[in-house]
Amino acid sequence: xxxxxxxxxxxxxxxxxxxxxxxxxxxxxxxxxxxxxxxxxxxxxxxxxxxxxxxxxxxxxxxxxxxxxxxxxxxxxxxxxxxxxxxxxxxxxxxxxxxxxxxxxxxxxxxxxxxxxx
Length: 118
Fold this sequence. Notes:
Largest sheet: none
Helix content: over 70%
Number of strands: 0
């Protein structure tokens, strides 16, 4: 062996900088492929298209929830709570019984009133 081949070989020594914990951290870093074939690149493009469509559909769902469903439900349950509170107040203040005779009509009317201004 010549001195050139021996000098090119470097032996790793363990110091504080390259302790086993820091070396394992370096080994756990994600690696990216250096070469890609044309088949792999089209698969990646399809994946990114699918991811883009997924993100767009999630954004549309979020807009639907924040613009339509949450305000409608808040208005419906807010009115339901207000009616319940008013009935309890009237029963406390005056000796009156508030009785809902037809619950489905009462709920339907509340839903229609809540949707009236949307």
